[in-house]
What does this fold into?
Amino acid sequence: MKLLKSGLILSVFAIFLVSCKTVAQNSNIKSISFTNTYGRGGMTSVKVTKDSIETTGRGGRVTDFPNYSKKMAAADWNSLTASLDLNMLSQTKSGERKGVYDGHDEIFRIVTAEKEYEIFNASGDAKNYKQLEKLKTKLTALTAKYK
It folds into this structure.
């Protein structure tokens, strides 16, 4: 019975280790950016690297968007990258680009040591968009925090 309990505990621990995302997966992320285009109305952009955050807003519709470049805490970078699953990111399908027709575009760009992911208007990919939606929320919060 004792052997059975030990085996069960070790099995649960092994499953836990296998299911966890490793920090090494996300340690090779170099930068994360999110750009919102509003056609002729302007654009907003947030770019985050390991130690800095830079925001840009241009155009008539984004006059209240902050424009700055500041140092960022390492804890904020770690929190941001911990939520990204690069495997799921590579499976995310881009939607149709609307900016060409004076429409609204959401552009996510994640640069790693090996690859650059550029995803346009992915909200149609409901399964994989959830992590990008969370990323957008975190980037918006960081924009306000460092304002």
In short: The chain is about 40% helix and 30% strand.
